[in-house]
Each structure stands twice: as structure tokens, then as C-alpha cells.
Backbone:
């Protein structure tokens, strides 16, 4: 391989980031796999994705309106903490000003 200028490519280890053993109150799943809605700003879903960069991991929290399937709030940061998700939620609320009540569904990882 060395003569040909080839090198083995190693994979990065999988990193578990969801802490299911936290002491926070668990909230029941009100969405219950019903991903259709009749009006905008009634049901929102959110999640976090991890983006590898040359400087380390970039964490991106997004909030999507299930009616339009549009991303209505997002935040990125180099730290994975609750501020990341709360900031994305604040931005979505400021941007859309949803009527009360509405449902915000997440996997409760943070």
C-alpha cells in the first residue's frame, strides 16, 4: 500500500450523546406518531444533528412545523447543552408567534 501511496482510513468511534438515565421528569408522548396536522403552528418537532468539522463537532438544533414541513427555528453551537435547544425554540416562537396551545415534540435527549 505504501508503494502505491495508499493509506488505510480509520473510522471515528461512535459517541453516545443521549442520556436516558437523567433525573428530569419524563413527559408522556402526546404526538403518538400522528405526523399530520390541519393547521400551521399547532405541532412542532425538534431534533439535534451533529456535524463534524475540522475544528470539532458542530451541533445543530432544528424545529420543524409539521403542517408546512418548514424549519422555523434553529441554532448551532460548538457545545451540546440545553441552551442550544432553548435558543432554537425561542427563535421559532419569535418568528412565528404561535397561538396557544401548541405541541412541541422532541426526543427528550437534552
Residues:
Amino acid at each position: 500500500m505504501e508503494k502505491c501511496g495508499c493509506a488505510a482510513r480509520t473510522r471515528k468511534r461512535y459517541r453516545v450523546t443521549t442520556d436516558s438515565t437523567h433525573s428530569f421528569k419524563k413527559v408522556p408522548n402526546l404526538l403518538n406518531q400522528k405526523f399530520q396536522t390541519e393547521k400551521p403552528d399547532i405541532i412542532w418537532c425538534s431534533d439535534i444533528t451533529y456535524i463534524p468539522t475540522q475544528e470539532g463537532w458542530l451541533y445543530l438544533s432544528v424545529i420543524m412545523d409539521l403542517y408546512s414541513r418548514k424549519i422555523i427555528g434553529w441554532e448551532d453551537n460548538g457545545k451540546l447543552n440545553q441552551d442550544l435547544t432553548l435558543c432554537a425554540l425561542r427563535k421559532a416562537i419569535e418568528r412565528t408567534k404561535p397561538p396557544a396551545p401548541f405541541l412541541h415534540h422532541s426526543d427528550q435527549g437534552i
About this structure: The chain has a mean pLDDT of 83. Strands lie at 43-53, 56-65, 71-77, 103-105. The longest strand covers residues 43-53. The two ends are 44 Å apart (CA to CA).
